[in-house]
Amino acid sequence: xxxxxxxxxxxxxxxxxxxxxxxxxxxxxxxxxxxxxxxxxxxxxxxxxxxxxxxxxxxxxxxxxxxxxxxxxxxxxxxxxxxxxxxxxxxxxxxxxxxxxxxxxxxxxxxxxxxxxxxxxxxxxx
Length: 126
What we know:
Blueprint: H1 4-26, E1 31-35, E2 44-48, E3 52-57, E4 62-66, H2 75-101, H3 113-119
Antiparallel strand pairs: 1-2, 2-3, 3-4
Helix pairs in contact: 1-2
């Protein structure tokens, strides 16, 4: 069996990665475009995220707008949106399986054969 420290470390890293995926999903900085005009006063930075786009003026003012439709997104951002949402959902499933699997490992508790068979009802001995 793997030591309890490795099991806890793996679970913690998985949860940290899942939280990171949620943060990345919410941030609007997926595509960053800088436009600098003939002088510094007309410069602006455009941030395109998977949920909204933002424009930052040289004065520090920022305006964000949520996309009106899916068609407003470029194909790479549409793919990124789908993949990030899928990764967050798979992360939830992985965390739930990690918690359920932890019930029969040495890290959380020691299970008897009877307790192990109760977790899988289709394999119960008659």
